[in-house]
Amino acid sequence: MLLARLHGLRHSDAWLFGTMLVSACLSLAASFVLSVDALRLAADPGTSLSCNINAVISCGTVATSWQAQLFGFPNAFLGLVAEPVVITIAVASLGRVRFPRWFMFAAQVVYTLGVIFAYWLFSQSMSAIGALCPWCLLVTVSTTLVFATLTHVNIRDGNLFLPSRAQAAAARFVDADLDAIAVAIWILVLILAVVTKYGAALFG
């Protein structure tokens, strides 16, 4: 009985869009802080940021890399534009608004590109830059959660224009809560990757 209730709660609009809303708000807050830091660094490249903790946890090192301004402006500005759209979708959906199928499909495509970009930045921090930004890590995790909930909703509601067999398989996947398990494992893998690479240097 309890498992059935938990299953029903997790598949409810309140849980899905509530999770999407909280995650998008966290990402927006992180993007705002990163944008402010980018402007501070632009005004004074030698300024010390509050999250410059050690050689590994260093927002300044990440923010001054070319990867942090891939399009000629701070990447955080993209979050300031994208996350309010997600917040609007989540709030409206909690109010029982239903968006057209094409709109939700477009949102899925755009946010998928955003997640790919977030993980490219994460990989660059891990491999090329050699430093981590806590706010960037928060963006990575929060965008993962937004992507997961948005995908769940779009599969549930048949918004992805999948072939019938693929749609049925995807629906069974999310109905069995395998998507939640996959996300939990994925986030644990990210944590393990960071700890394995940097170890005690994270706290040095």
TrEMBL record:
Gene3D superfamilies: VKOR domain (1.20.1440.130). GO terms for cellular component: membrane. The keyword Transcription does not apply. It comes from the Bacteria. It is a multi-pass membrane protein. GO terms for molecular function: oxidoreductase activity; quinone binding. The keyword Manganese does not apply. The chain crosses the membrane at residues 12-34, 76-95, 102-122, 128-155, 176-195. Residues 13-154 form the Vitamin K epoxide reductase domain. It is found in: Membrane. SMART domains: VKc. Belongs to the VKOR family. This is Membrane protein. It comes from Planomonospora parontospora.
